[in-house]
Structures are given as structure tokens and as C-alpha cells.
Amino acid sequence: MATLATDRTSTQPASTFAFILKKAALSALVALGLFLLMIGIRTEAGPSGQLIYWTRFGELAAIVAAVFVGSIVVELLRQWSGRIGIAATPAPWVGSALAKIGKLLAPALLIFALLVPVIFYNQRYLLDLGILVLTYVMLGWGLNIVVGLAGLLDLGYVAFYAVGAYSYALLAQSGLPLPYLTGSYPFVAVDFLQLGPWAFWVLLPVSGLLAALWGVLLGFPVLRLRGDYLAIVTLAFGEIIRLVILNWQSLTGGPNGISGIPRPTVFGIPLTPGPDGLAAMLGVPFSPTHRLVFLFYLILALALLTNWVAIRLRRLPIGRAWEAMREDEVACRALGINITTTKLSAFALGAMFGGFAGAFFATRQGFISPESFTFQESALVLAIVVLGGMGSQLGVALAALTMIGGFELFRGLDQYRMLVFGAVMVLLMIWRPRGLVGHRAPSVFLHHRTTIAADMVKEGRG
Amino acid sequence: MDYFLQQLINGIVLGSIYGLIAIGYTMVYGIVGMINFAHGDIFMIGGFIALITFLILISIGLTVVPVILLIVLLVSMAVTALYGWSVERIAYRPLRQSFRLAPMLSAIGMSFVLSNFSQVAQGARVKPVPPIITGGYTLHESDAGFAVQLSNVQIVVVVTTIVLLAIFTWLVARTRFGRDMRACEQDQTMAALLGVDVDRTISMTFVIGAALAAVAGVMYLLYYGLVDFFMGFLAGIKAFTAAVLGGIGSLPGAMLGGLAIGLIETLWSAYFSVEYKDVAAFSILIIVLIFLPTGLLGRPEVEKV
Amino acid sequence: MSNDRDILQVEHLSMRFGGIVAVNDLSFSAQRRHITALIGPNGAGKTTVFNCITGFYRPSGGTMHLTHDDGTEYKLEKLHDFRISKTAKVARTFQNIRLFPGMTALENLMVAQHNPLMRASGFTFLGLLGAPSFRDAEARAIAHARDWLDRIGLVERADDAAGNLPYGDQRRLEIARAMCSEPALLCLDEPAAGLNANESAALSELLLSIRQDFGTSILLIEHDMSVVMEISDHIVVLDHGVKIADGAPRAVRDDPKVVAAYLGADEDAATAIMEGGS
Hints:
heterotrimer; B: mainly alpha; ABC transporter involved in vitamin B12 uptake, BtuC; two-stranded antiparallel sheet; 11 helices; 72% helix; C: alpha/beta; six-stranded mixed sheet; 12 helices; 10 strands
């Protein structure tokens, strides 16, 4: 909120100091208007339920002063950058430079990721953070298929994450939830608990496939929708799924969630301290870090699988059809491409990877509740995809690292976290509307590999 | 029958509030073609400003209810309008010529900023106020002892909505600003060439939308007697549903859609289940967008090949 | 209904939008291996006819029969949009070029071969595993695309974004893209619009060579009478959604009704257009 000076209409030559001061004074005045009541007066429900209030004019003055100074700084910076030619438009060299070092950056990042558990073996916090980042990298890559390649704006991606997590949790705990649906327990057809330690490895693909099924189910009705309407409908679907999970207490435990979800095993060997455990079999002392390391490599493998599939698909006819659909749906129809199946396959694949990530999330936490699947998560993943530069795998990974890492940096600030996150989202969009890696690499070439500038690439109307 | 009548009254009151918010969505969508995701939070800010103003007025010893009401309304509209203006200036104007996704994400970001700003500035707890307008009329009392009530606050909400709507309709239909706004809706470049200040017109659209959302915030505070920092999200989505149901871009449509959503939500809660009332609202949104994308009063859009 | 001579028979085609009658009871046929031109003043309903034939509009009435060389018949009015291209093999271009601007010229031509490639990739599964049969199919598809790039003189620019190509190149690329889907009937909506005289002449040659080398039947909407008179075998004239003339180029040009229709629209334009062909 500190910079009201972000408008570009008033970059007239009036670059005098008086102009800057006037502008800063105006910004400060606006800030005073905005914050006088919201910050100057603090309300709270008193002990007897009666509202009480107290004043905070000190904070108010500080913020207004900060806006004044900030406005001056921003205006000076703008004039300075304007003079030496780094125009307000996002610098194109960022993209091309990234493309050049991208060739080196991607393998370097991969090697680093592989070494993380070795380097940070004793720092559980960092390992946990690494797992979190990789989960979002995977979600970002999954959503990238839908948004970046197919150009379908999905604001409810978290629904598939939730479907994956709940599918895993429910199937692992109580077998097929059929009896809940028919109301005739115990009529269990399949009891996955019999799978014992293998449950995770069977249920992971099952959860992914169920999420894909939901992707198709939700995709069908929205086939004809475009742009903002598609975004809103997918948002609504995401919220409906969360609300149903929240309210269907008998199945999902409602707001209390599901706990005691089976932990993953190393292909059937549990990571427990007992004699059957991996530690005992390898003859090393048991440590809870083992599981963390295993989870890290597991999500790394899942994320890389997502990446591999996405890259592969781009070079296959289906991937080209997705991109063509993003560019011009009408032309696709004229070329005999079935838009229905093309769209549904994008939804299904994106959803499947979301489902995998969800199942992983469930097994990692051991506990899930509807709180983990709010609209904010969808927005976060979408922000990662868009900030990464739609369609760019490396960009998405970098964006996930920055966003989730940055998010963690602000953990100490607690309630300011979402405030900062929102502000960062706004500023990043203004700075680079096409994301970090905005250019597009062709899927096939005749003479030499080229890149296509971002402003040429369409973002899809669907 | 009496129970139904009571729900009808409640639904119309709730619908008036949704309708007021929906106008902001419809206007902004009409003129810049984007969903202003932060609009629900603007409504929430309006509620907070009203709460604070009300508290101050009470504490300085003002007791005349109509005067309090008028001041609260005016202050809330003015300050919230400033919020609307600032949001457009900061988050949307730099992205006006940009790709479609950028303003949408910027708007989502702005929505997070506003709701969390309220949380930080005013705390996370629900803020209750004592009833400001009390009393009412019993319209009909059945033998079973069920009475159909029409409270004064309900009358105030509906009357205020009607009056503001009338003023606003006049503004759009008869004034210079209204003409500029409609011109910008049709073709911004052409409007600019003909001497319309497009930037100012768009700013004014946000200002008016925010002011009406503030009115909705005041009405919400009066009617439900509480505000919290998270109330903007759901109210915003429902109001957007109303705007689409009425036909996006159409002002009477927004009001009509608001009433429809208010009624549906109230009746659903009364006859089916309160827990799933939001699911019902979202389902309506989906059904409307899929089967009736032009809404009740909207213009159909023909795809050009 | 069908005969060996005609690839397309349009009978009693009508298209109404609300109260507006865009096409009214139109009947004409396009002969196999011929270039049939559909002309008429602006707003005559030519593009509407195209949109009906290529499945973008569902006609309010009438039938459209397409007969392949092997005698297979398709009722175009009953086919769903993309199937008209996929099964009935009708390809089209657009009045306002609709390439995939962010994809390269080569990619544009690859997308046009989507359906055969999709089958070759085992509906993605074989392709994902890198099956050799798919690699062969893809190599053939690239070679096919290369041939077409060669034909339209764009081999050197194969890896450039289609949206970066000059206007005339984009027009030709769109035709090449339509041809890459190996159509039986090629529908071109004002292919010469915005081209200069040289480019128009090159376009005429391209169209004649397409018919010569591939035996593709062509249906053409065009305002540039020099192109129409030079290459078409048969002309259908529309005005206000109604057919007013139908015949060989020379006969149509001298038809007083046609002259009147154009004169009614704009006197200078009519004279210019009518003299363009001679």
C-alpha cells in the first residue's frame, strides 16, 4: 500500500523536486484518508461483549510518513531508471539471460536438489522446507499443463489436491468408502489395509486416477466456458469440494479431519524403529530423519516424473494440440482437432498430478483437514505458474522456490504473512506480467532451436 | 405460508445487500472487462469503517439515530470510495493493457492484501455491535403462534437500497459521467479520441462501485450486527454470482440477480440445510455460468469466426 | 442425390440469425477438381455459407452433400464441427488470418497433421514411451511439412513464430496449413485480401498448382476479381443471401444482374471490379 505513485500517466517532464514533493504529499494525504480510521482507531470486543476502542495515532503518523518518504523514493527511482533507459516495461534481458543460463541452471538445480538431504541431513527444518517447496514445484508443474500449455484458467486446482489427499486417507483407512455411500456398513468390497506396508504404493496411483476422474467430471460442464467465467466456475468447484468435505462429517470427519493416515514405506519396508524397519535391516541405528530423507526423495521423484511427462507431452501431438488450442481454438476446430477431448485430457492430466501431490501430502502429514485446501492454496499455485512464466518448467520451479521460500522467511511475522504475500503478488504482476521466463521454446525445429518472445504467445481464452 | 412470507422478507433484505455489491462487479466488468476480485473485500472495509465511525459517534454522546445513520453512511462511502480508487490506481491501472491473467492475479493479490490488512489492523475476532435500529411491526400472526415480523432495520435496508439505486440510475442514465462510462464500455480508444478522459472515467467507476459496496457494508452491519475481516470473500462471490445471473454489465440486472441470490439462499437455508447454503450458492453460480452465461438481462454474445 | 461430377452439392441452404436472413434458399454445386468462386458484395452472406459448410454454424435449413473420390458421402449439416475437417476432409482458411501466432511455421503445419499423428502416437501412450513407429510417423510429418514450406517459399523461416511473418507469408502459410490436413475440399475465405499485385499473382499460381498436383477441389471467396477471373472454373454470385448468378467466369461477368448488384453497392467499385478480370 506504500506506493500510490505507481501510475504511469504522470511521467511528464515535470521532474522538478517540487513536483515530486507535491506527489508525495498527495500520496500521504490519500494514505491518511485510507488509514485514519482503519489504523488510527483500534476496535476490539471487550470482556463483556461490549465493543471498546483505543487510538493509535502514533502508528498512523508513522505509516503516513512512510508513504510520504516511500513515494519520494519511488519517484526518484523511476526518474533515475527512466533517464538511463531501463524503462518501466519489464526488462527483456531477464528472460533471455535466464534462457541462456537456464541450460546450466536446470541441471545445477537438479544436482543441488539431489544433494539437499546429504548437505542438510541434520537440519530437519530445512529438509521439511525442501519437501514443501518440492510439493509446490510439483503442483506448479501439474497446473502448468492446464494453464500454461492448454491455456485453461483454473482457479480451483486445490480441489484435485484435496481429492488426492482424501482419496488416499480414506482408502488407506477404511477401504472403499462405498458403505458410507450406500449406508450399509460393513459391506467392504476392498480393504486396502490388507495390503499392509504396500498400501501407499498401490493407493498413490489410485488417488491420482481418482483425481483425474474428477478432473474429467469437472471439466465436462465447463467445456464451453472461457476466460474469467472458467476461472470463476473452477473456483466455485474448488470451494464446493472443500465445503462438502467440511460438512460431510460421517465420511471425512468434517473440520476435525482425518488422522492416523498410514505412512509411506520404502517399497514395503516400513521406516519404523522395530525389527522389520529399514534401519534394522540395514543395520544402522534408527533415526526419524530417515523418513524425512525418504519423503524428500519421494517428492523429488514425483515432481521429476511430472516434469518428464509434461516435457514429453509437449512434443507429442496432444501437447501441440493443447498449445494450438491456447493460441486459437477456432483454428483448431477447423483443423479437425477435437476440442472436447483435448481440453478434458489437459484437465485430467493436471488433476492427476494434483492428486499425486495430494496423496503425498496426506502420507507426509499423517493428518489432513479441510483447512489445507482453501482458495488461498489455489491462488498460490496459480501465482507460481504465472510468475514462473506460463509454460516454462524452469520458471515454475524457480517461482515455487522464491514464493514458498519467501513465504517461510516471513513465518516469524505470522499475521503479516498473507498481507505481504498479497502485496508481492500485485507487485510481481506489475513488474513482470508475463512471469520470469516469458518466452516460449518451440516443440520441434527444422534448422535451429529458437525462442519465441512472450508478447507473441497467446495466453488462451479458455 | 407465514413461515414462507417471513423467509421472503429476509431474502429480499439479504438480496438488497448482495445487489448493492453486485453493481460494483457489473460496472467494473462492463468497463474494463475484468472481475474485480478485491470488490468483496472493499465491501468488508466498508463494514469496518462503518463500525468504527459508529463507535466514535456513540462515544461522543450522539444519540439521534437518523443523524448517526447518515454520518456513518457518508463517512463509510467516502473512505471506502478512496479504497476503491487506490486499488484501481495501484493494482489495475498499470496492467490495463496487459495480458488478461496479470490483472486477475493482481486482483486476487489485492483481495489478500485488503482482508489481511483488516485482520492486522483490527484483529481477527468478530466485532459485534449492539442493535442500532430496534423495533418493528408484526405483519401477521398465525394461530400456531408464528408471527411474520418486519423489523425497522429491514425497512431501512430496503428503503436505502431503493433510494441509492434511484440516484445511481439517474447518474448513469442522465449525467455526463454516465455517458462517458457507457462510451468507454463500448470502445475505449474511440471514447478517448472523442475527448472522454478514460482514466478518470474508469477511476470514477471504481469509486462509485466502492461507495455502493460501502452502503452494503453499512447495511450488513446494521442487519447482522457484526463484521469480521473474512466476510468479503463469500459475500463477494455471491454478489458476483448475482451480477452474472442478472446479466453482467446490466445495472438493473445486478439488482435483480442480487434479489434472486438472496431469496435462494434464504429459502434454501430455511427449507433444506443451513450447512450447505454456500454449496447451493456456488452451484447456482456454476449452473448460471454454464447454461445462462448472458444472464437474465444481458446481451447475447455471438462468436465471430 | 450424388453424382461423380460434383464434390459438393448445396441445396436450399438457409441461415437465419434471429430475424435476419443471412442466406436464403441457396443451391449450388462445386465440381470435383475445379476452382469454384463465391463472390458478391460485402454482406452478401458468403462467409456465412462458408461457416455452414465448415461446421461453425448449424444451418437453419437445407442440405450440404460432400462426395469423396471413392464415392463416400457426407451430410455436412449433420456433422459436428471438428469432424467436418477430420472425417469429411474439408479444410478452410479465415478472412482474418487465424494462424497460431506463438508457434513456429513448422509447428503450425504439424498441428494440422494432428489426427494421423495422434493415431501414430497410440493416442499419446506409445508416443510417451518413445515407440519407434511413432518416431517414424513424426519424421514423415516433418518431411511433409517441409515440402509445404518449400512450396510456399518459407523453408528458411520454418522456425520463426508465425505471428512474426509478413502478412503475405502468413496468408500462404495458412493455406499450407489447411493443405497439410490433406483435404478433399479446400475452402479459402478471401485469400488475396491485403496482398499486392505480385503476391496475388503468386497466390493464383499456388492455387492452380494445388489443384494440379493434389487434385484438391477448391471453393473460394474473393473480392479480387483478377484472381477470380484468372483461376476459377465456375462462379456463384450472391447478393443479400440469395444467388443471383451462377456460371462460367465470362458469362457471369457480363450478367446484367451481377453488374447491378455491384453497382448498387458502389458505382466505382463495381466498375473497377468488373474491369479487373479483363
